[in-house]
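Q: What changes when FE2/S2 (inorganic) cluster is included in the input?
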Amino acid sequence: MTTLPKEVTLSIDGLPVTVPEGTLLVEAAKAVQTDIPVYCYHPKLGPAGLCRICLVEIEKTPKLQIACNTVVAEGMVVRTQGPKVEDGRRAVLEFLLLNHPLDCPICDKGGECDLQDYSIAYGQGMSRLAERKELKPKAIDLGPTIVLDDERCIVCQRCSRFDEIVTNERSLVVKDRGQRDVIATATGAPYRSNFSGNVTELCPVGALTSKTYRFRSRPWDLQRTRTTCQQCSVGCALNVDERHGNVLRTMSVPSDDAVSEGWLCDRGRYNVGFYADERRITSPLGRFGDEWVQLSWDDAIELWATRLEEALASAGSASIGVLGGGRLLNEEILLVRHVMRALGIANVDWRTGRQRQASPGARGGTYDDLENAQAIVTLGRPPSQSAPVMDLRIRKAVLRNGARLISIGAHPASSFVPATHLARLSDLAGTLAEVERIAFVWDGIDAALGAEAEAALAKLAAEGKHVSVFVPGETPNARGAEALGLLPAGGALDTRAQLEAARGGTLRILSIFGANPVLHHPAGAAFVREALKRVPFVVATDLFLTETGRLAHLVLPAKAAFEKDGHSFDLTGAVHAVNAAHGAPPDALSDGEVMIALAAHLGIDLPSPRELADWATASPATIANGLGDAALCGSLAPARDGAAGLRLAIAAHPFAGGGTVYFDDRLGELRPRPGLLLSPATAQAAGIGEADLVDLAAGGRVLHDLVATLDGNALEGVVTIVDGLPEAPANDFGEGETVTLGNVRSSRALAGSVV
Ligand code: SF4
Ligand code: SF4
Ligand code: FES
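A: The predicted holo structure follows.
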C-alpha cells in the first residue's frame, strides 16, 4: 500500500497554500500564481543557493531567506513582496551587475532575459561603482555549437550543473574564482555534447548563445508554433520560432514531462538549416535520359498515373512496388496505404534501412517505465545513437534511481554512465535474478535476436517481473508506418524481394516515399543502384536529390516536417500532433497531398477527413485490431562472410545520414567523418594509432581512408563504423560481419571523434 505524502499549509502573500511536505518555497509559491525570481535555481536541476535573487521574508525569521532552498513548514508566513524583500533583491542585483557590460541592445537574450527583466523590476537604475569594470573575454568559441560571452555570465552554474546532473558528461566547469571566474571545459577541449543547446536555454542571461541563432532576430519578431520533433522516434515536443518565413531556432517545451522532460538533443534543435537550403527540390522533376526537366504538378501526376495504369493493365499489381513511409505522418501513411490498396498493390514496405521492426510487441512501456526500471538492457545500437533524449532518461534511471545498465552484443550501452557488457543474450537471465522491473531496449534490427530476446523476456515476465520493451528505430515514425500497415501482407514482396524483382526485370514501377535505400538498405549501395536502374519507372518524393532520387525518373518535391499538419507516433506508441510552423516552397506538397492528387487522377475515392483523423490518432493497439492485416513478414538480409579478423559493429549517429543533416551546411562540424572506432588494445594489436588512415574490407568490399579513433569504452575485437554516411556508405557491410583492416597510414592532422 502506498502512503500519501503529508501535507503542509502555509501562507504566501496572505494566501493560504497547501502543498506536500518537503516542497521548496519557490515551488509552493507557484500554487498561488506567484513567481519568485530565480537565476541559479531550476526545477529540473534543483537548488544551488548561489545567486540570492530569490530572497523572501519569513515571519519570525530575522533575515531574508532564499526561497529556492527553503522547505515549507506548517504555519509558515511568507512575503514575496514588500520593501524589505525589494531592498534585498536590489542589493543582489547591484552585486550581479557590478561588472556586467549592460549591453542589452546588442545581446541576443535581450527581450527574454531574466537579468534584464529583474533589473527593471528590482534594480536601482544606476551603478554606484566608481572604478573601472573588470573586463572579461567576449565571444569565446566554446565548441561547435555554442559561443560564450563571459562578461554577461552571473555564475549561476546552471550550465555546468546541467552537464553534471542531467547528462553526467561533466565537461563544463567554473574555472578560477572571484571576479575572474569563467565558464570553460575542464580539459580546455571544445565543448561537445549531443545536448549542448540546452545550456543556451538554461542560461538566464545572454552569456551562452547558439552559433546558429546569434544575431538573427529579436524574440518579439519571432512567430512561435508548437509541434513535435520529427528527427527521431522519441517524439519530443518543441517550439519552432520563425521570422519572415525563415526557421531560426527550435526551443524545448518545459512542460513536456511525459516525453522529453523539457530537453532537446542537438539534432532536434539545430537541424533546421536545410529548410532554406537552395538545393531543395522546388518543382517536380522528370528525368528523360540524362536530362532533368521541370514539370508541372498536373503533368507529373498524370505521368505517374498513366504509368501505373499501363503497368496494371500489362503486368498486374504484382509488378508494382512501394517503399518508404517511416518519415511520413500518420495521415500520409494512411493515404499511401489507401491508394495502393485501391489499385490492388500489396508490395509495400516501410523498411528501407536495417530496421526490421518498430513495435515493442505486447510489452511496450512508457518513458516512466524506463526511468523507474531497476535494470535497463540494451540489445544492438544503444539509444544514445538513435534516440538521444531517451538516453537522458536512461542516464537518470542509472544516476538517480540506481538502475543497472547492461548492454548485449557489439555496442556498449553508454559512455556517460556506468554499464556492464554481456557477450550473449543467454548470459542475461542470471544477472536479472534479483531485479523486479526490467526495461529492454532493442534496436529492431536483428529479427532473430529480437525473437530470442522476446523468449527470454517472456520467461522473466512469467516469473512475475515487470518487463517493458522499447524499440527506438531509424526513422521518426516507423511505429506509425508499421502500425498503419505499410507492410507486405499475404506473401507480397518486402523491400529486399522488391529489389530482387527489380534486378530480375519483373518490377515495372517503384514508388519511394521519403526514403533513400541506396544509402541505407543493407543489400548495399551497388545492389540497390543496379536494381533501381532496371525498373522502367521509379518515382521518389523527397526534399533533396538524394542518391536514390538521382536514379528516379520522376522526383516530387515534398514538404518537410515543420511544413505540414498531422500526427505521428513516438516509439512508445503515444500519438502527437504535428503542426505546420513554416511555409513550404510554393511547389512542394506533402506526401498526403500527393496521394490525394494521384487518387483524383485515378478516380479513387478517399476516406473522409473524419475517418482519416480517427485512424491517425488511434492507439497502435486499436489500429492493430481495426486495420488487421498488417502482419510482419520479410526476412533479414543474408549475413555475408569475410576473412577472419575483427567483428564489425555498425553504429547510428545523430548527425549522419544523406538527408536533412547532409543538406544543412551549418552542421558540418557536427557530422561524423568517415572513420572507425576501436579499443586501444584492439588498435594496438592491429598496429593502428589514433587518427591513422585505415582501409576496412570484407569479401571484396572496401571502405577506404577511414580515420581511426581509439576509445576505451569500445569492446575488444570489435571495430565500429557509422551507418548512413554518403562519403563512406556502410550499407555494403553487415552487422557482426568479420572484417579486416589494412593499408594503415599515419595522419595526425585528421584526428577527431568518429562516433
Ligand atoms: S554561462 Fe549562463 S548558465 Fe552558465 S553560469 Fe554563466 S550565467 Fe549561468
Ligand atoms: S531526441 Fe529525437 S525527437 Fe527529441 S529532439 Fe532529439 S531528434 Fe528530436
Ligand atoms: S535562485 Fe535562489 S539562490 Fe539562486
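Observations recorded in class: The pocket of FE2/S2 (inorganic) cluster (ligand 3) is lined by residues 38-41, 49-54, 66, 68 (CB under 6 Å).
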